[in-house]
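Hi support team,

I submitted a single chain yesterday and got back a structure, but I'm not sure I'm reading the token output correctly. Could someone confirm the output below corresponds to the sequence I sent? I've pasted both exactly as they appear in my results page.

Thanks,
R.
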Amino acid sequence: MNSIPTTALGLAEGGLPVLPLRADKRPFGNCRACEDLACGGRPNMRTPGPCACPWPCHGWAAATTDPAAVASPQWVAAWRRARTIGYHPGGAGVTVVDLDNPAAVDWARATLPPTATVPTTRGEHWIYRGAMRSVNGIRAGVDLKSTMAYARWLGPGTGTLAELPAAVRALAEKEPTPARPAPRAVTVPAPAGSGQCRHRSPAYLERGIAMAEQRITDAASAVHATVYRTFLAVLSAHGRCGCLTETHIARLFAAAQTKGESARHCTDAWTNACTALGM
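Hi R., thanks for writing in. Yes, this is the structure output for that exact sequence:
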């Protein structure tokens, strides 16, 4: 029997803002009612806003402590498909120092004040009382998750919850990273396309390109594979009807090069995706 819905309801009743996570540990995608901002909210998963949609499809911003929402038919359907429970640390007034490997845990033990800890698959979550901005990759295997972010609920852990110390807040002030070379303009012919257009409006295509750019930008590892899969998804959805332009392609290439991909790798990934789809 799936205990996730019952556990989630109990956490919400206890004041923890919860949301369902899929098998890949990501939130559920936006439902059709929320596409193109039709719901009146902001389904880009970055800023909360008013939304009449009853589905838990707004990423971290969907996290709620409302038992009625958590127990609603729409949410229960999502909980039954979920593989784990997520929560919004900032909404709960805490900050999670996500330590993703043993080396990161050793670093925390030598550097940070002790606090409540929760074991994870590969490391530990160190949880402090107090919210702050979230930052990924402050050092190898270490992320800060608080406002505008979500973390997995893995149990209450052990130890006493300590106040958020200055040492953790200082971690958000990342040292400037070396500047990457400016993206090179690469001209790749857009697919000619002769199939029937499935786009209901130009905003549909724009949203697809924007989501693809964000997917590449958010890649924390396996960037080359992420770029290829993203190109494949864009071509699969938009490459056969002739709506995809060289301007759209240039935006995707620029996002990939900003993550460190070379112009040649971008071209190769695009060509391989076209080949895989028979274009």
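A quick pointer for reading it: The first strand starts at residue 18 and ends at 21. Let us know if anything else looks off.

Best,
Support desk
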